[in-house]
Design brief:
The protein is α/β, with parallel strands linked by helices. The protein contains 14 helices and 32 strands. It folds into four domains: 180 residues, FAD/NAD(P)-binding domain, CATH 3.50.50.60; 114 residues, FAD/NAD(P)-binding domain (3-Layer(bba) Sandwich), CATH 3.50.50.60; 114 residues, FAD/NAD(P)-binding domain, CATH 3.50.50.60; 100 residues, Rhodanese-like domain (Oxidized Rhodanese, domain 1, 3-Layer(aba) Sandwich), CATH 3.40.250.10. It is globular and about 90 Å long.
Length: 550
């Protein structure tokens, strides 16, 4: 069996390695248009920032080492430019020469390429405009910084890569401006969870321009859609990626509307003996079932294993992706999994949501940090549909647990039952994930009736707004219009609260508000408790105030 694999990064290299483990006699040819294979895409910003100092650390395998271990014929600098289905050949461009390579089985893993929009001035200023998608890109940016010593940079696009490169450039002493066309950074996040990220960006004195497109790029600046000119000695385009499938347009292999390769659950394309995987294919989302593009290394590696098995006669299925991701931004950690609220609204799917604010470890043990957790769930079954966490320590552990919940269709009740490792330096006896389960159950059983920060502006004027924090906390800052009755005084001061009106409660994170709700409801009051409490409101208020200042 002769197998030709197009693309030599995560998906392609993974397929080749798995295939060789299954079949020692197969002829395997790996064609990669770039100079490197099997490199660490996610590490590229950290090479630019000097965190990773050795070039070789980004390359997990070289063509020679890959051959030595797997006996795979690796050909770098070989770009596949077309596929002939009838002849079962690919046309390969290698420098100035083109040749045909035959195959018995063909694997397509061409990856994705950066989106480069037709911005005014982009052609004239290519010498200082960069994308960051492969090893060569990271070398070019690093060398430019070393040679030109730029003082300012505009990062256009605030996804994971944009945020990571912004941090690393800042750490090198470069003044950074982040420009994002949406209302908030990081598309996988909901807007309410982005407030804390915005505040962290501004606290670092990084300029943040939201709801702005880049309309022109000059020699020393960029012009935004509102006319503002932002200083930029160089520019990083981080707007997103699209499937690198132009060479397949006339092949007869089915492509989707976005240029993605259409595959079934076995990673088979529309044509026999041809498989596809990685960033160039759409796969079903594990929650919605909708076909989605999720350009991440983890799914690509899993798909490579599956394709490597199916090439040898197995019938293994890929069961979908959920977009589990995590990012470090200075001291902040941002992580997501599953669906976000904005997507569920578009799908018109019923959902519930809760915000929990938990310490990364036991409160009495020094050094803990708060993490904000947003969890989306089915309002009937309590099934976990998605989660987002913004915090510092311990975010990785909790997002992985919630990712498992999404993947395996777990409910809030199963989160409660999770028996997790506990010691004061690492967690609390009631882990933040357990707390998510408890809070959702309270909502489902109507023990906790939530309202949310976006509801505050629409609270009826005749409603009672109650802050049950201590006087000291209240005096340090509170929501306008909220009366302070500390929780421990509530029973004695019950008569101060109009029993005929609905009561909107807040505390710092929601826990004391829930306790107040339990008390008031048993005294015949109708109540709602602010999910996420004043802590979440404070992040939102700070973010909005800074936007107004700009």
């Amino acid at each position: 069996m002769k197998v030709v694999i197009v693309g030599g990064v995560a998906g392609g290299a993974g397929t080749a390695a798995r295939l060789r483990r299954n079949d020692e006699k197969a002829e395997i040819i790996l064609l990669e248009k770039g100079p490197h294979i099997s490199y660490a895409n996610c590490g590229l910003p950290y090479y630019v920032g000097g965190v990773i100092q050795e070039k070789g650390k980004l390359q997990l395998q070289t063509p020679q080492s890959f051959y030595n271990r797997f006996r795979v014929d690796v050909r770098t600098g070989h770009e596949v430019v077309s596929v002939n289905l009838e002849k079962k050949t690919v046309v390969v461009c290698a420098g100035d020469n083109n040749y045909e390579e035959s195959y018995d089985k063909l694997v397509l893993s061409p990856g994705a390429e950066p989106v480069v929009p037709p911005i005014e001035g982009i052609k004239e200023n290519r010498d200082h405009i960069f994308t960051l998608r492969n090893v060569e890109d990271s070398y070019h940016i690093y060398d430019y910084i070393e040679e030109k010593h730029p003082k300012t940079c505009a990062v256009i696009g605030a996804g994971f890569i944009g945020m990571e490169i912004a941090e690393n450039l800042f750490e090198r002493g470069i003044s950074v401006s982040i420009i994002e066309g949406a209302e908030h950074v990081m598309p996988p996040l909901d807007s309410d969870m982005a407030h804390r990220v915005h505040n962290e960006i501004r606290s670092r004195e990084i300029a943040l321009h939201l709801n702005q497109m880049c309309s022109a790029i000059g020699k020393n600046d960029v012009t935004l859609s509102n006319g503002l000119r932002v200083k930029a000695d160089f520019v990083i385009l981080s707007i997103g990626v699209r499937p690198a499938t132009e060479f397949l347009r006339d092949s007869g292999i089915a492509l989707g509307k976005r240029g993605e390769i259409v595959v079934n659950e076995y990673m088979e394309t529309s044509h026999k003996d041809i498989y596809a995987l990685g960033d160039a294919v759409a796969v079903p989302h594990v929650v919605s079932g909708q076909q989605v593009l999720i350009p991440l290394a983890s799914p690509a590696n899993k798909q490579g294993r599956i394709v490597g098995d199916n090439l040898c006669g197995k019938h293994c299925a890929y069961k979908g992706s959920q977009g589990t991701s995590i990012m470090k931004f200075f001291d902040l950690v941002v992580a997501v999994t599953g669906e976000k609220e904005e997507s569920l609204k578009i799908q018109k799917r019923p959902y519930g949501k809760v915000f929990t604010v938990s310490a990364s470890h036991a409160g009495y043990y020094p050094g803990g940090n708060q993490m904000f957790v947003k969890t989306l769930f089915d309002p009937e079954s309590g099934r976990i549909l998605g989660a987002q966490i913004v915090g510092k320590d311990g975010v990785d552990k909790r997002i992985d647990l919630l990712a498992n919940a999404v993947r395996f269709r777990q409910t809030c009740y199963e989160l409660q039952e999770e028996e997790l490792a506990y010691a004061p330096p690492f967690s609390s006896a009631k882990d933040p994930v357990n707390m998510v389960g408890y809070v959702i159950e309270n909502v489902l059983e109507r023990k906790m009736k939530p309202y949310y920060v976006e509801d505050i502006e629409n609270i009826p004027k005749d409603a009672v707004c109650l802050d049950v924090r201590t006087r000291a906390e209240y005096e340090m800052g509170h929501i306008p219009g909220y009366k302070n009755i500390p929780l421990d005084e509530l029973r004695e001061r019950m008569e101060e609260i109009d029993k005929t009106k609905e009561i909107y409660i807040t505390c710092q994170i929601g826990l004391r508000g829930y306790l107040a709700q339990c008390i008031l409801e048993q005294y015949g009051r109708k109540t709602k408790n602010l999910s996420g409490g004043y802590a979440l409101y404070q992040e939102m208020s700070e973010d909005r105030a800074k936007k107004i200042e700009k």
